[in-house]
Design a protein that fits this description.
With 225 residues, this protein is of the alpha/beta class. The protein folds into two domains: 15-169, Immunoglobulin-like (Sandwich), CATH 2.60.40.420; 189-224, no CATH class. It contains five helices and 15 strands. The strands form three sheets. Strands 2, 3, 6, 8, 10, 11, 12 and 13 form an eight-stranded mixed beta sheet that branches. The chain starts with 14 loop residues before the first strand and ends with a helix.
């Protein structure tokens, strides 16, 4: 099936191409985007496979599954981070019934919902700027949490390494697994006076009265060690 000139087209393979010369020009990417913080605010709260933003920066093309999850009613990954100009390809798994991919602000749309595993839809974020974010849905299954998000350039969220592991908040790789005064995060350290006080206060007024006793016992134990 082929639409009129200038409209989105679809072949048997379901290969839609929408780029800077297509819907992006018609709707305006800048007008249809917002900061990642604003777009993410509660947007993915009911998406049970959302585990952070998967960091795909540095890649020219990224694939998102349409019909992921146990029942085929999720996008996988639910949230991704890409560079400006990256092409995102949504690929149907054939699971979960008929799906489509529609940006909530109209920036991009795959059209009517389809259920064939042969379908793909792609959109190139050519006019997106650093910090832009786009939220989208499967219209037939939005009410049950089939939603996704694409962040561009940077995002204030826990970043997930697609090859395994977490790259930390905002893409930082962390500090090599250390915490505190050069000790490993899996190790232990002696309790400080502040630690003991905090523990005691956690028990209320009665606990606060026991601070001297806690400290004396702790000091004696450290001395014996």
């Amino acid at each position: 099936m082929t639409a009129n000139a200038g409209d989105t087209s679809m072949s048997r393979r379901g290969f839609f191409r929408v780029g800077a010369a297509g819907a992006a020009v018609a709707t305006g990417v800048a007008a249809g985007s917002g900061t990642a913080a604003a777009q993410y605010d509660g947007w993915l709260d009911d998406v049970d496979n959302y585990d952070g933003t998967h960091d795909y920066r540095g890649r020219d093309e990224v694939t998102v599954a349409v019909g992921a999850g146990e029942n085929g009613l999720r996008f996988g990954s639910a949230a991704i981070l890409i560079d400006p100009g990256t092409t995102v390809v949504w690929e149907w798994t054939g699971e979960g019934g008929s799906h489509n991919v529609v940006a909530t602000d109209g920036t991009f749309s795959s059209g009517s919902a389809v259920d064939s595993a042969e379908e793909t839809f792609e959109y190139t974020f050519a006019d997106a700027a650093e910090g832009d974010a786009f939220q989208y849905v499967c219209e037939p299954h939005e009410a049950i949490g089939m939603k996704g998000a694409v962040a561009v350039g940077s995002v204030d969220d826990e970043l997930i390494d697609p090859d395994g592991g977490s790259s930390g908040d905002g893409g930082s790789s962390g500090d090599g697994g250390t915490s505190g005064d050069g000790e490993t995060s899996g190790g232990s350290r002696p309790l400080t006076v502040n630690d003991i006080a905090a523990l005691a206060l956690g028990f209320g007024v009665a606990g606060a009265l026991l601070v001297p006793l806690f400290y004396a016992v702790h000091k004696k134990a450290n001395g014996a060690a």
